[in-house]
Description:
Radius of gyration: 13 Å
Order of helices and strands: EHEHEE
Helix content: 10-25%
Distance between the termini: 19 Å
Structural class: alpha+beta
Largest sheet: 4 strands, mixed
Low-confidence stretches: 1-8
Shape: globular
Number of strands: 4
Strand order of the largest sheet: 1-2-4-3
Amino acid sequence: xxxxxxxxxxxxxxxxxxxxxxxxxxxxxxxxxxxxxxxxxxxxxxxxxxxxxxxxxxxxxxxxxxxxxxxxxxxxxxxxxxxxxxxxxxxxxxxxxxxxxxxxx
Length: 105
């Protein structure tokens, strides 16, 4: 996953991350790149404390409304691979590729 150009992990309908057990969603539409890291960190931390192993959905959008293309999807991917890695058991793009499904530790 850390390789440049590597594909996001992606889950299909047969994957148990998408079997309807999503506890909650964080919709980042309207968030700036500066606001996003703390919002995602807070959301994941709250759910990790509330229910370890919970599956949540982080909606980033595809960036179609952004003047300079997608920003939040790459930013959230970097957070999941980097500073928030210790909170996350596994993650991947949702089926519509407009967000991430995340299972917490």
